[in-house]
Please model this.
Amino acid sequence: MANVYSFDGLLVFGLLFICTCAYLKKVPRVKGWLLAEKRGVWGVFYKASVIGTRLHLTVALSCVTMAFYVLFLK
Model:
């Protein structure tokens, strides 16, 4: 189980957050509701979705690497 208070747990949480926001950007109703704000607290979701869509190859490779680490090395 990943612990959020450790460094690798924080990385797993960040990667899952970015991947989830990038996926939700493709859903029309959620895009208008959750990702409409670009500033403030709700802007974090928008910024994570932009990171996930622009750096999709890097995020995907990071997710595969982190999955290998969590499953086999940890």
In short: The longest helix spans residues 7-24. The radius of gyration is 13 Å. Residues 7-73 form one domain.
